[in-house]
Every structure is written in C-alpha cells, then in structure tokens.
Design goal:
12 strands; 228 residues; alpha+beta; seven-stranded mixed beta sheet; globular; tt1808, chain A; single chain
Length: 228
C-alpha cells in the first residue's frame, strides 16, 4: 500500500442529499434533468441515489490532477480522450456514477470520435480521478469496480493513492500507476501540495518540466526542492 500525505486540512463535505427507493427509470430521468448542471454529481447504487454539489475545495485538486494526466500524455506523445464527468452506469447491476474526471488512454482509439458512451459495447475509462471521496455517503469505489475502471487516482484532501482494480473486483493501493508506470503517488503529491501557494499554470509547468526530466532519465525535484 502506498499513501502519501499532502499538507492541508481534510476537505469539507459537499452539499448532498441521499434519496431511497429510487428505481432505474427515475434515476435515468434525473440524469437527463441534471445533464446541463455541471456542478451536480449523481451516484446510484441499487435504489440509493446521492445528489451532490461539490465544493470548490473538491474541484481544484480534481482539475489539477486532470491537467497532470493531459501533460503526461502530451510528453509521452500518446493520445487521450477526456471524458470529464461522463456518467458511467451498468443497468443490469443497478449502479452508476459520475467521476470527477476520466480518461481513455490505451483504449482511446476505440472511443475516438464517438459522441456517446455505451458500456455494453464501449470500454470503460482507463483512468478516473476521485477527489474528496470521504464526503460521499455511498461506496463509489465499489461502483467503479462494477463499471470496470482499471485505475482510480483517489485524493481525500490529504492523502493520494493510486487504486488498481483486481481480478476479484476489489481495488488495492499501488506504489505506481498502471497507466503511467513511471509515476508514483509521492511524486504527484509534491505538486498537489503547491495548491494555494502557486497558480495552477505555474504548478502544471513545473510538473511538466519534471515529467520531461523523468522521461529523459533524471529524477526530478523532491518535495522540498519544488518551489511554489
């Protein structure tokens, strides 16, 4: 298990409500009703529906982690399909959720140009980003497992882990990323720790420079050496 602390307080809970006894049809209707409300997340688990409006403290780390993913793929020269908070759901398993961010990387060619996602025929994202996971009343990781997302970067406001899906349907924390094997939670945490002390563009520039150095065979700066 590999967990790395990032300075700062645990993020506050987002504004949320949990509804009980919601069938799949009503869940689907609510998805359509909220489809133009980007600040609302719906999580569904066998009749339980959580509606959450994330706080800014939730969004900033998720957005920065997503920008890191884009920077890495650009430096590697590989394509990526960004899914944002696209709804991932399995009707037969009665589960669904909207990740903070998600990406097709190895499977990007299978999703290129597709306007809609159908998990009956399309692959799940290779990587999802979860921020402020402790604020959810439902077990989102078990839903990710049902959907079949191979890797989840999970940040609770203090700790960052790379969670990898196992054959038995559970996740375990890994010392390295499956999508980017050279990457560790400690290295990413170095740059997440700069939130509040530097602008996001400045953080991404430093992260990108570190990735270039890493790919060229260098080690990059330590947390103490990285400057906000």
């Amino acid at each position: 298990m590999s967990t790395v602390a990032v300075r700062g307080r645990r993020q506050p809970r987002g504004r949320s409500v949990v509804l009980h006894g919601i069938d799949w049809r009503l869940y689907s209707r609510l998805l359509r009703a909220f489809e133009n409300r980007s600040g609302v997340r719906l999580t569904y688990d066998r009749g339980e529906l959580e509606i959450m409006a994330p706080l800014l403290e939730h969004e900033s780390p998720a957005d920065l982690l997503g920008r890191f993913v884009i920077a890495i793929t650009e430096e590697l020269g590989v394509e990526v399909r960004s899914g944002g908070s696209t709804t991932l759901r399995r009707r037969r398993r009665l589960r669904g959720l909207e990740p903070d961010r998600c990406y097709w990387i190895a499977t990007e060619p299978l999703m290129r140009g597709k306007p809609h996602l159908d998990l009956r025929t399309d692959p799940p994202p290779d990587l999802a980003v979860e921020s402020d996971v402790t604020s959810s009343s439902l077990d989102r990781m078990s839903i990710y497992a049902v959907v079949g997302v191979p890797e989840v970067w999970r940040f609770d406001g203090r700790l960052l882990t790379f969670e990898l899906l196992q054959p038995d349907g559970t996740y375990i924390s890994s010392p390295t990323s499956r999508a980017f094997p050279f990457l560790t939670p400690a290295e990413v945490s170095t740059y997440l720790a700069m939130i509040g002390g530097a602008g996001e563009n400045a953080i991404v520039r430093q992260f990108r420079a570190w990735v270039r150095q890493k790919l060229a065979g260098g080690t990059g700066p330590t947390a103490a050496q990285a400057t906000p």
